Amino acid sequence: MKRGLFISIEGPDGSGKSTQIRLLKEFLDESGLEAILTREPGGTVISEKIRQLILDKQHTEMDPMTEALLYAASRAQHVAEVIKPAIKTGKTVICDRFVDSSIAYQGYGRQLGDAVRIINEYAVAGCMPDITFLLKVEPSIGKERIKEEEQDRLEKEKLDFHNAVFQGYLDLERIYKDRIIGIDAAKDIDAISNEIILHIRKILNADNLE
Q1: Is 209 exposed, middle or buried, given 0-12, 13-18 or 19+ CB atoms closer than 10 A?
Q2: Of the CATH numbers 3.40.1110.10, 3.10.520.10, 3.40.50.300, 3.40.50.10700, which one belongs to the domain with range 6-206?
């Protein structure tokens, strides 16, 4: 059985990831490919409980390293329980955020540096996306798209934090240019979707899956 495709969707808060994930799932369904949607932090019972801890607005005292380790712990369970088994059986996995988020948010935003990458090498156990779509939007615009009362603990951080996160994403796009496809999230929804699907078609055709 051929290994399934692992796709991650990344971007700053308010970049429109949820909409593009839904449209990509619709395309894969229409193509006759079995695709599962999952998210980070989360995706399993254990990981969702960790998500609640991380994003709870009341946990303002959380230490940056605690935050990074919780994300990695959630990811380790997610990879072991959901992602690896799915792609092993030929399913396509679409993940809302993955390890790039930790490097951007904790490595750059929290200024923990390379420690985040090292921690997550253990968490992912060699399981990395085949392709990552980075929806790029200026943090000041992205924050405005989320109602203040709906913002979680990280979304509520100051603009300087989100600017550092965005710079992290830009650096990752440059370093991993063979995997990360940057897309201007200021474009209209259909244009973004078409660009994502174009790249997915190329991969599927290369694998003779269509």
Answers
A1: middle
A2: 3.40.50.300
Q: Flag whether the pTM goes above 0.85.
A: yes
180 in Cβ contact with 132 (< 8 Å): yes
Distance from C-alpha of 127 to C-alpha of 76, rounded to nearest angstrom: 10
C-alpha to C-alpha distance for 135 and 199, rounded to whole angstroms: 14
Q: Reading across the β-sheet that carries 92-96, which strands appear in turn?
A: 35-39, 92-96, 6-10, 131-136, 180-184
Tens digits of residue pLDDT in 107-145: 999 999 999 999 999 999 999 999 999 999 988 786 666
- Determine the Cα–Cα distance for residues 134 and 159; give it in Å rounded to an integer: 19
Domain residues of the chain, as ranges? 6-206
User: Which residues have C-beta within 8 Å of that of residue 121, sequence separation ≥ 6?
Assistant: none
For residue 159 the two structure tokens come to 């603009």
Residue in the block written with tokens 């921690």: 119
Q: What are the phi and psi torsion angles at 95 (to 5°)?
A: -115, 125
Contact residues for 26 (Cβ-Cβ < 8 A; gap 6+):
none
Measured CA to CA, the distance from residue 200 to residue 70 in angstroms comes to 31
Residue 34 token pair? 């079995």
* 125 Cβ neighbours under 8 A, 6+ residues apart: 76, 79, 80, 84
